[in-house]
Fold each of these.
Amino acid sequence: MTGLTTKGAATRDRIVRAATELILERGVAGMTLDEIRVGTRTSKSQLFHYFPGGKSELVGAIAGFQNARVMAAQEPWLDRLDTWESWQGWRDAVVAYYRNLTHKYCSVSALVNDVAPTDPRLAAEVAAYADRWREQLAAGLRRMREAGRLRPDADPDRLALAVFAALQGGLLVMQSHESIEPLEAVLDGTLLMLRSYAVHSSSTGAA
């Protein structure tokens, strides 16, 4: 939302942060705007001033905020996935982030599953978040191949898709089991899969 004063931007940010915690606990379908208003200590007029599109617009802001948190948690590794050590660091950062969460709806896709199918704009926003995340993984794999750490026949885009799909599946199983172990297992498996494409000199773990 543009055109806000500094105070207005701070108020909107406060609403988004508070609403994020509420919705991550109960899911989008489990929260009404009135409950969000009470939980964020916001008047009805104030809520619609900052989110004139109602619940869908607020959920979109929450999805963006949560995506930014998830991406930040993967740094500095996500921007430097050019060695096997950096991939291990990325794996550990992802696990550490989700291990410290107590929310059921921890992934962006799980957060908006109840709204996105009926809101094409929101669905497109969430798809764009996923595309950017997957592209960063692919960029790292392209650097790995260019540096001679992956075989020339390795397809970075396809491998990144496999890693990303496995990660999202691991998050869903983690949520249903309320345990970090499924996420740890799937990420360890994806690293083994990537290493199967390593050239001989890198397969032993060399940078």
Amino acid sequence: MVDPLRVFVTVAEQRNFSRAAELLHLSQPGVSLHIRKLEEEFGTVLMQRSPKRVKLTDAGELLYKRAKEMLMLHEAARQDILRLHDMVSGSLHIGASFTIGEYILPHTLARFAANYPQVDLELTIGNTERIVQLIRSKELDIGLVEGEVNDEQLRILPYMKDEMILVTAPDHPLAALGTVRVEELGNQVWSLREPGSGTRAFSDRFFADTGCMPLKTYIFNSSQGVKEAVIAGLGISILSRWVVRRELAYGELAEVVVQGVQQERSFSLILANDAIPMRVLDAFMDMLLARKIEK
């Protein structure tokens, strides 16, 4: 039986009845019926509907906040009971920035799923800024992000180090040099990630620290896009070695060493300060911290 409050929360977060119905595996009329019954129960309009989106009324905003609290307490009680039997089950909503979510985390998720087949896993991939927002709003249980995060609402734990490298197409003039000074990177075309991503933050800091000024930049909203652009000859870039190691091995990209420049960053685990303890989350964090992924 579907909890009407869970239906309400899903519609409120998706701002769309159709998407909420897909996530809940319900029909759209079924979702509408749950919302209508809640409005009848509380004697007020909770949502303003339009063809494109749903907007919460003041009463809807109040119910959304309370409903999230009730659902979290329900899950916490369920996890406490499972803990009595030393069982790990339930659902875990994980967020990851692109480099981690696309190139690192899938291997960990596969191991976790094999160890805990009763757990339903859901992975959301977005740039670091987006994952931080979703953790803050408690739409995700845990996040793994790249770059610096400073937020008093979050608990931030160091996870692992990541090596960033300068890459070019194999026939780019810099590739023939193998090692370059920062001065030789001036007036180059660069392919970069979008603002808000950890990779872009690293590139911006590289430019600020070295005084390197790109001649022209092309912006992509994924590391895959940047990588393919560089392979095609659209400038140079700094990317995680995780992202490009396969292309380096097959000779589709070339690594260029920049003399005297520290090219390392940190990955972090992030959780809301007031996140309710869950056995499934504890098990996932134990696996992450005990088996930090080897390159």
Amino acid sequence: MIEFKSAEEIGRMAVAGQFVGELLAELSEIAAVGMNLMDIEHHARRRISERGAVSCYWDYSPSFGRGPFRNVLCLSVNDAVLHGLPHDYVLRDGDLLSIDMAVGIDGWVADSAVSVIVGVPDPADLKLIEATEVALAAGIAAAQPGGRLGDISAAIADVGHSYGYEVNAEFGGHGIGRTMHEAPHVPNIGRARRGMRLDPGLTIAIEPWFCRTTDKIKYDKDGWTIRSADGSRTAHSEHTVAVTPAGPQVLTRRPARKEPAGTDSAAGS
């Protein structure tokens, strides 16, 4: 069942979204060569607790995964792209890090992700991140009232293909609101003018992700971390978006980064 939100409810989601956007920007800044992933995780735990927010990841137990997720972030490095389990790993020069988080505040949830490069970037990694950000911007632009869900999926896939990347259809975006994962599923590939109608009040997480040289994935033994099947690098971008009578509204917009490093400006920060 899909729940359409009122303008007031979207405003309450935007409160959670603002916090998510601000914390993701903060975490992107502290991610540096020599930083342990667990230090980033514990920094986020402190900030979430201080805000009185609730992590949507803690104790999350979907059909995949091995046991409940006992972290507040997904931290995916290099060939890991989704659901990266924070662990004792020290970031190295040139690592590509994707940070994904979702929190609830006063019963309303927002979800977002950003990919950054630690240290000196490889131009191919910059291109990969840029592709996810441009695809995210295209998906957001396609979330117009009266349009179709397939418009979003087709826009994302068109960008991925234009950059030379294959597009995985297994994991994509999702509805969001009172909980982190609601209907509908928002695929990263599809046909324009097909699928459910995009009516005002629909709130979704749009999240394109690409691997450099494959669309196939594999799982780590932890049951959570998803990697490119061929070991190629990966990137992931995501925003929570509301469909409104005036057009799409990004609820997890991030403050501009202090230093350009691939930037997330293509997706409206």
